[in-house]
Amino acid sequence: MNLSALLTSAGINIALCALLSTLYSILRKQPSNGKVYFGQRFAQVQLKDQFSLDRFVPSAGWIVKAWETTEEELSAIGGVDAIVFFRIVVFWKVFHNFFTSSPLSFSLSHYIRLFSFAGVICICVVLPLNYFGQPVHHKRLRAESLEVFTIGNIKEGSEWLWVHCLALYGITFCAFTLLYIESKSIAKKRINYITSNRQKLGLFTVIVRAIPFSGDSYSDSVTNFFTNYYSSSYMSHQMVYLPSTVRELVREAEYMYNMLKSTDVSQCGPSMVRCGLCGSSEKPFTILSRRLYSSDSDDDDRRGLAEDLREQECAAALVFFRTRYAALVAAQTLQSPNPMHWVTDIAPEPSDVFWTNLCVPYRLLWVRKIGTHLGALLLMIFFFVPVSIVQSLVHLERLKEKFAFVRRLSNKRNFIFDMVTGYLPSVMLMLFLYAVPPVMSTLAALEGPISRSGRKISACHKVLLFMIWNVFFSNILSGSVLESIDRIQSLTDIPLKLASGVPSMAVFFMSYVLTSGWTGLASELMQPFVLLCHWLDKTIFLGKGVVSYDPLTFPYHTEIPRILLFGLLGFTASVTAPLMLPFLMVYFFLAYLVYRNQFINVYITKYDTGGLYWPIAHNAIIFSLLLTQTIVLGVFTLKKAKYSSSFTTTLIICTLLFHFYCRQRFF
Amino acid sequence: MNLSALLTSAGINIALCALLSTLYSILRKQPSNGKVYFGQRFAQVQLKDQFSLDRFVPSAGWIVKAWETTEEELSAIGGVDAIVFFRIVVFWKVFHNFFTSSPLSFSLSHYIRLFSFAGVICICVVLPLNYFGQPVHHKRLRAESLEVFTIGNIKEGSEWLWVHCLALYGITFCAFTLLYIESKSIAKKRINYITSNRQKLGLFTVIVRAIPFSGDSYSDSVTNFFTNYYSSSYMSHQMVYLPSTVRELVREAEYMYNMLKSTDVSQCGPSMVRCGLCGSSEKPFTILSRRLYSSDSDDDDRRGLAEDLREQECAAALVFFRTRYAALVAAQTLQSPNPMHWVTDIAPEPSDVFWTNLCVPYRLLWVRKIGTHLGALLLMIFFFVPVSIVQSLVHLERLKEKFAFVRRLSNKRNFIFDMVTGYLPSVMLMLFLYAVPPVMSTLAALEGPISRSGRKISACHKVLLFMIWNVFFSNILSGSVLESIDRIQSLTDIPLKLASGVPSMAVFFMSYVLTSGWTGLASELMQPFVLLCHWLDKTIFLGKGVVSYDPLTFPYHTEIPRILLFGLLGFTASVTAPLMLPFLMVYFFLAYLVYRNQFINVYITKYDTGGLYWPIAHNAIIFSLLLTQTIVLGVFTLKKAKYSSSFTTTLIICTLLFHFYCRQRFF
To answer: Which of A339, A460, B227, B507 has a CA-to-CA distance to A480 between 20 and 30 Å?
Structure first.
């Protein structure tokens, strides 16, 4: 791929972005789309339904609004998680972006001083060095192969490689400082989050699972156990019940009723989601308890109902304590000599509890865990097939010796060829990748977490590993394999393969940043799928709510891995192929605006982990640093730069030490 | 090596064993050696000093005594750790030994029924099958190469390999049952250990490290912190002090005093070891506190002394609580938002505390940990050099094509050659290995554990890893490398290398069992080094205690890895080279007797981990099972036995599931 192919790809994506955001700025003003674009404050905002020309003129008001939102406002809307998310975005953005300093300066002024330095070095010093690395005659810039901008263009044993080494040092130590400061600030935020919410129900409650059956019922077991061992602090408990057939019927009837009557605005919102244990509505409870304690019901009926309730009990309960300290101690200490009985955890907030998983027998959880890990692993492995197909398109030029039709296509060397090699592969990869987060989320739910946020964190881990392996490694390795047509001989070859692969694959990743990054953001803004569902619902199903759904929570498990993957690409490219940095800068800048807008307007916040996504980001950043250093070490070895190699080895050791320190200090 | 070489080695070792145990049975009756052989009950036993012929006649009374000791007596002498140790020995012994059933039947009758079956199969069915595996003409039994007794002798694609597969299944499932029952029983013992000692000081005490300095002194910080947060349960605290120069002088003076006066029986024993904080004697404390609180000392003096004490304070303290529950809660919860301040641990027993490590600044511990791990790793790697030398001796026959002097030696094919190939390599390996446990123990101490037992557990881990890697893997791999003279190409070759290596290396391991196992046990019984020191001290230094030392605690960190290594050898050999099993049976039988004798008579017990060595043994056994299965799978693949391979794969999955279950259930 040469510069013109890259520009084609960039052109298409910029056009798409512009189109989508124009559409968005018009569509958001239509009152009928309010539910799609203003889920967060649907109750507050009431768009005027009267016709005016202003409704069809594109405007940039949302950008200003997103820009002006302060961190305090964001925290009020999205909780600590939103702040952590933006810290991750800003980490990368500031890292690669030294232009925008004014609106962020309230908290980041001292980073900018550090990171403008790193950015300047990579683009102003490393890039020209790469370009003039070999004394060859340069073609016209437009037809220039993009590989002359990478470190691959520097000739063997060149003395200029120490500049790359120095740039790597600069970047690494800036990253260390930034990570340390951010981790410290987020730790403080997390403590504030825990200490400030003194009245939170979850902090007084412990979820007990795997209650051994003794005596009459699980409920009696719980009462006996906690009055015995926690007599001073135990208050009461609530058993968790199995969803019975009657309740299923009630639920279905309610669903039918909702379908039949037209959608009512007052019914939307969180009230529908929060009710009920085990996914059933709260009504049966009310009825049952009213009947149980009503004075006019006869004794037989009451006994029968109590018997019925007892049979539906799960081996799980919510135990309420008088103080937060007692609840914490009960949750953190081992309750029984057999660690598979009386398993206690601090309870999530009511809206965060994953009710259906509470009824899963605890002794099955380890099997489920192994099963889901295996499932995720298999998905990772078999995803290699579509990735290989994508790669064969990128390396079309190399395949043309073999296949006649490719040669014919490439002989024309026109717009279509540029599009096939430049744009199609990353679109395909993006489409394949869209299927992954839902699958991983299902797997994470099967794993048996007791909270919805726990499921999201688990899914986030899985998606991140998947992305790093399938987008980064298998692309580079399969690309390298196709290049040198022979197989990878042994594990020790991998760093060298990566070293030769990364600079040449940087071109593909640039195009990936354009499609998955830029256009992905525009489509996130536009929400085409939700919009389609909403329209279908309005036009065909006449507002019966068949395909549209309630406002969603922010998909951290999709977006955090994506941001971290782009960060990884940025790190690995920073020294080897600095041409990618401008594209990433634009991406992070757009991401900052778009996600702010989405947080303010679209997504609702039902639960908050209190900043538990940060360790994932921290580890991913450390991994990116280590990977970058290993790749650069490989390049230095290939280029026979002895001193630079040994200095890079020292840097790897420093990074490991920093990681161990942070793990001890913060996590 | 053929059968005659093996018999030579066996002969030498049996002779050595007989000699050493005869010597032992005579020497132990000499009153002058009482301190060497009866350290455990030196105070109780007073051997008669009068001359009688009986003193010089070898006898087997100690064997009977060791045999008759019950588990209760052992527990009273050596604590839970001793029981765990014998459970490990008996696990292997019973596993390979189906003859001795009477004295163990009190607790093991149901295992014996299981394992006699496994033992019978391996020797009576698998061994003949191997021997007649290929339709070749067998030489005279004496000159037969030992490799015809291994699985390597079975011809490719043979249908008899399912017998091996079946035997492996039997062994694995018996091991599962045994492990499960043992883990359960040891968990019960551990709970008993904790609950029965209601008055143990350690359970009321918490060691606090990394106390932040605030106000006047560390002591004030502790008082403020614990009266603030644990007002109802906090009782008092004792600071840990730096060893100052004055105390050093006191200690040296005391040492000189001990040197100058002749050894007094009443001074020996544990009282000398337990006294003092930070390795210094307890006297300075007494003096200082007496002077501090005495009524006749003037105020200036007191203030000066308090100042002096304050300067010597470490950032560590022992905090005493009113209840065990409060101490446990304080030890298990996080005390401060910064996890590197106010680090709490439940305190070890007074004799178990590693005083010098308490003064190590907590913030340095992670660096020390990394450093010691690296050190252990380097030792493991560079130990490859002596192992290679040893291996070249075993494979002398294969080297004779290259070196003339080897050919000349081997042409004579006499007793010397048998000795060089059969006996010398394992003696050399054993001598090299003797240096390892002290080094690992030093490294473990540097790592910074707060208890002596913690140091031993850490050293045990390190030595075990070292042994498994250096005795098992590097011997087999370097052996295989020498055989096929080419290098290992990639990681995937390793299972196949192991599969071809284990059966042929079984011969070397047999000889290793003979020297390191049998003779090692005899020398453990005889204690030649301690005896030598004792004699030197008596004859040359005239009882001044220059080279002799106080009775030692049992070296778990040396003996548990050795037992586990022999178990690993037994497992891997059980199906592939069953000829090794009889040697191991004898070894475990001897070990059972010798270690019992040593526990009863020689070693003293100062501290007890309460059974924390069992998880190490459990994991090592699971690893051995997995390794055996992998090796057998490799052999089946080499022999092209499809069905057996797939059945073995199933077995590996079962083993992994069992491991995950046990980890959840017990640890």
So the answer is: A460
